[in-house]
């Protein structure tokens, strides 16, 4: 690797780190000056753009057509008409064109680094009062919230003030532990695809970080990735055969055991089911993933063709209303874009998962893992328009041209 290539790789990695922090960290969420800086930084990227593909122009056209139709029916804001396709369609497309499959390689390196770094900080914060006091004073100083129930971000680490009883959860660099579990699981699956490794040092470190999130959805996603890897093995020895036979019964047994033995887990699930699966959707005292699911289906059923709420102006303002769209969640895709365009978006996510896997010569059952992670996570986290998802979408959109290339990031 020559000097120019090394410098270019370092620059790309630094740029990606900054971009990822802007996209994911809650540090930027509550300060309009920081949001302006983040937006300006992304705008600078478009100066190096190349000609836009006709497919992307069609997507922007369809998106804006839906925004106008929804605006005539529910509400419209001119500024968002331009900024939404810029941030959610055009800029991700330009990033895809520049990075292609190396985007996921940079992402894997980044998450692996922060899984080590944030786990160390989390352990120190959890066990050493001086460290805990220092971190919490710093985050309150840099990014104050009105109450203590929200996570506090230092960009490179998020301190979760309000935790489960007697349990301190690791949120990494994400806005909350469940989101960090999603980022880690996605990286674990990528490592399995790119390097054909599962029980490697890198994955074990990220799995330990995932365990520290105490995320139910994260554990389910990890089990799914493990199961797909296990069934992809071609060895015919007795250990592999026995593992395939026992993996699902073992998971069911462990789930039942943990459900009954861990009070926070059983109580959490029972409370969600009891309070959210029945009753009025307008109930102001009932919130959560099951309520979001029911509200999203309600909006999708009443707006099956054109959807509702792509931009905030066409969404229901009352967050407790039965018509409030759960933006970014799985069911929110169908609610915001209607069944036709929503299903098309999910199809290209599926196709992208297959295409990215094939770029690394993975054609077995593991090729579905990235898509399934997004689907499972979509029930509890608003990540369906995350840049990871959008990179998969563009990979699926351009799969016929086979434009993705294996990156030159050193493995």
Write the layout of secondary structure elements.
Elements: H1 3-24, H2 32-45, H3 54-74, H4 78-99, H5 102-127, H6 129-142, E1 152-153, E2 158-159, H7 177-194, H8 201-211, H9 216-232, H10 238-261, H11 263-276, H12 289-302, H13 330-359, H14 369-377, H15 387-397
Antiparallel strand pairs: 1-2
Features:
two-stranded antiparallel sheet; mainly alpha; 411 residues; globular; 15 helices; 2 strands; 1% strand
Structural class computed from helices and strand pairing: mainly alpha
**Rg over C-alpha atoms, rounded to the nearest angstrom:** 22 Å
Note the gap between the termini: 13 Å
> How many beta-strand elements?
2
Number of helices: 15
Oligomer class: single chain
Q: Report the major sheet.
A: 2 strands, antiparallel
Low-confidence stretches: 1-7, 403-411
Order of secondary-structure elements: HHHHHHEEHHHHHHHHH
Query: What fraction strand?
Result: under 5%
Helix content: 55-70%
Task: Note the overall shape.
Answer: globular
The mean pLDDT is 78
Biggest sheet: strand arrangement: 1-2
Description:
The chain starts with a helix and ends in a 14-residue tail after the last helix. The model is unreliable at 1-7 and 403-411 (pLDDT under 50). The chain is mainly alpha-helical and 411 residues long. Strands 1-2 form a two-stranded antiparallel ribbon. The protein contains 15 helices and 2 strands. It has helices spanning 3-24, 32-45, 54-74, 78-99, 102-127, 129-142, 177-194, 201-211, 216-232, 238-261, 263-276, 289-302, 330-359, 369-377, 387-397; strands spanning 152-153, 158-159.
